[in-house]
Design a protein that fits this description.
Layout lengths: L1 E4 L4 H37 L1 H6 L2 H33 L4 E6 L3 E6 L2 E6 L3 E6 L3 E6 L5 E6 L7 H9 L4 E3 L5
Parallel strand pairs: 5-8
Antiparallel strand pairs: 1-2, 2-3, 3-4, 5-6, 6-7
């Protein structure tokens, strides 16, 4: 069982903020692209006869795409601000344990168990580790290695006993 304390210094907060951005921006762009393709097809079929006569539907479609981009940037900014505000609060220490069933997190007398089947992948970067949820393909937990009471290699070898990890060397 390892103890973990989220560090609230600006360097750690900035690292986690960038990690969220690095993971979420491609997700937002891919989802936005799919929505744009669906919007274009629906709009084309709804105004099929009008496309031959006027170019107004194209301008309306472009306006919808621009509004969607503005909405995506706004939601992303609000989410990152929420993450930063949450990180600045003191969370205290949590205990984390890795076993054959999954990982167990004990925080304020609350026990959270996450099975290895529920984790899509474990990503290892130079300064932090990310657990990605299988169901929603979003970040489940981001933890900096500085917050643990053990060395990084000991922690990684313990995780590798139960789940394959992916290494990412491009630190920002």
């Amino acid at each position: 069982m390892y103890s973990y304390k989220q560090l609230t210094d600006p360097n750690s907060i900035n690292m986690i903020k960038k990690a969220h951005g690095k993971f979420l921006i491609p997700l937002i762009v891919s989802m936005g692209s799919m929505v744009n393709i669906i919007l274009a097809l629906l709009f084309y079929f709804a105004t099929k006869d009008m496309f031959l006569k006027t170019s107004y539907p194209i301008y309306i479609l472009l306006a919808l795409i621009v509004l969607q981009i503005i909405l995506g940037v706004t939601i992303y900014g609000k989410y990152i601000n929420k993450v930063v505000i949450d990180l600045k609060k003191s969370h205290g220490e949590i205990e984390i344990n890795f076993n054959e069933k999954g990982l167990t997190i004990k925080k304020n007398e609350t026990l959270i168990e996450i099975s290895w089947e529920g984790i899509k992948e474990v990503r290892i970067y130079d300064g932090y580790i990310i657990f990605v949820s299988k169901n929603s393909c979003v970040l489940n937990r981001i933890m900096t290695f500085d917050g643990f009471n053990v060395e990084r290699d000991v922690l990684i070898s313990d995780i590798e006993k139960y789940k394959e990890v992916r290494w990412y060397y491009n630190e920002f």
